[in-house]
Amino acid sequence: MLILRHQRGFSLIELMIGIAIVAILLAVGMPTFGLWMQNTQVRTAAESIQNGLQTARNEAVRRNTNVRFNLTSATGLVTWNVCVVVGAACGEVIQQRSAAEGGANARVGISTDVPPTPVPNTQYATALAAGAGLSGAGGAGVTFNGVGSIPAANIGTDITRIDIINALANDARRLVIVVGTGGLVRMCDPLHALASNPQGCS
């Protein structure tokens, strides 16, 4: 004997309730997801710069000669190169990063003060609103000598601090890379103090 079984699916009301719940969850999560994406661009740019600085230092020690890390964008874009110093100029390029790589919203600002001076977010916001580049970024850099430290003649003129922000989102995270005179390169978060958090800036 054949037994008929009825398959029960979703009613139209149940389907509409499910769609409404998904829509509400997406509406709540989108701003957080957008901020996460902007923070990721800042993190990627900061890691790229940190890697470039470490490459320059390692190559200087390996070659036992002066090697320079240069920020190459006058408008604060995250572009850089690492090159062997020949006389007072940049010779053989070892590695470089173009503006087309990574996120387009990350911007850099620098300090050459010893010790490095903290730079407030308002300075960046003002420069970006005026359509100007972040001052001093283009052509600035750090030279490492054969023992991995900064030559005495360059202290006070080479970069000691690089701030990375997001030009699109004012509430995005800001990261800082500090370069010590001994050549140590360190990334930190300016929202935290070094005394209370190992990821904090001094």
Account of the protein in words:
The chain has 202 residues and is of the alpha+beta class. The protein has one domain: minor pseudopilin epsh domain (minor pseudopilin epsh fold, 3-Layer(bab) Sandwich), CATH 3.55.40. Helices cover 30% and strands 26% of the residues. A hairpin with an 8-residue loop joins strand 6 and strand 7. The longest helix is centred in the N-terminal third of the chain and has 52 residues.
How is this structure best summarized?
With about 200 residues, this protein is of the alpha+beta class.
Q: How are the SSEs placed, and which strands pair?
A:
Elements: H1 12-63, E1 67-71, E2 80-86, E3 89-97, E4 106-111, H2 121-129, E5 141-144, E6 161-166, E7 175-179, E8 185-193, E9 200-201
Parallel strand pairs: 8-9
Antiparallel strand pairs: 1-2, 1-5, 2-3, 4-6, 6-7, 7-8
Organism: Herminiimonas fonticola
InterPro entries: N_methyl_site (IPR012902), Pilin-like (IPR045584), T2SS_GspH (IPR022346)
Subcellular location: Cell inner membrane
Distance between the termini: 83 Å
Mean pLDDT: 80
Q: How many whole angstroms does the radius of gyration measure?
A: 24 Å
Instruction: Give helix and strand order, one letter per element, not per position.
Output: HEEEEHEEEEE
Individual helix count: 2
Q: What's the main sheet like?
A: 5 strands, mixed
Share in helix: 25-40%
Task: List key phrases describing it.
202 residues, alpha+beta, minor pseudopilin epsh fold, four-stranded antiparallel sheet, transmembrane
